[in-house]
Amino acid sequence: MGSLDVHATAFNNVGWFLPPYVTLGYLGNMVNEINTNGESFSQIDLENLLVRIYTKGHLSAMVAERYPITPYVSEFKEIISESVKAHFLGLDHLAVIGLMPVIEGAGKKLADHRQVSYSSIRSVFENLATDCKNRSRQNNIGDVDEIESMMDSFINFTKDNLYINSSSYLHGDKTNRHGILHGAYSDSDYGSPVNFYKAIGAVEFLCFISAFDASISWFASDKTENSLKLENYYYMCELMANARS
Q1: Is the Cβ–Cβ distance between 141 and 147 less than 8 Å?
Q2: Residue 73: which domain range?
Q3: Dihedral angle sign, alpha carbons of residues 80, 85, 86, 87
Q4: Which residues does 52 contact at the CB level (< 8 Å), separation at least 6?
Q5: For the whole model, what pTM was predicted?
Q6: What percent of the chain has pLDDT over 70?
Q7: Number of folded domains in the chain?
Q8: What is the four-CA torsion angle of 174, 175, 177, 179, rounded to 10 degrees?
C-alpha cells in the first residue's frame, strides 16, 4: 500500500490517528471530508464519521471475539465490555472513565512483555510504537511504510492529545487522560460519543500492537452467533437511552 502519511497528518490535525480494522477506502473518505472543510471541521463532524466505524456490529464482534483473546488487553475484558455497554446506554462519561485506565494498563503490560523501557506514560506508547516500526522493517512484517505511518500517527495522538497537559489540549472534545481522571474537566467538558470513540480506538490500537507477536488477525473480528446476540442487546441499551432522554 505504501505510506499513509497524508492520512495521518489529516487525522492528527483534528485530534485523531490512523486506526486499525478500518478499510482504506473509508479512511480516504474521512481525509477528503477533513480537507474539504478545513478549519471549519469540528469534533462533531469527526464524531459523525467515527460513529460509522464503531458501530454496534463492530463493537459487539470485538467485545465477544477479539478483546477476550488479545494478550494483555484480555485482562481488562470486563471493564471494556462494561464501558461499551455504558456507551450504548448513553453514559459516555462513565464509558470513557472506564477505558482510560485500560489504555494505560494494557500499554504498560505490553511494554513490559516486549522489554520496551519507558520513563513516563507518554513514553510507553511512543516506545511501543517505535518497537513495532523496527520489528516491521527488520522482519518484513506487513506493509512497512503503512505500519510506520500508523505508528507515527498513534505516537502523535498520545503525545499531543491523550497525555498532553490538560490546559494545553487544543480540541473541543477534551479527550485527555489528565483532565478527565484528575477532575480538571467537569460534566460539560466531555461525555460525548466522540470521547468514547477516541478511547475505544486507542484500546483497539493496542490490540493491533499485541497482534505483532500473537497469533491474532490484523483484521476486524467477524460476526458470530454470540456477537449477534450482543449486538441485539446493544440495540436494547440504545432504546433505553433514548427513552430516558
Answers
A1: yes
A2: 5-244
A3: positive
A4: 26
A5: 0.96
A6: 99
A7: 1
A8: 10
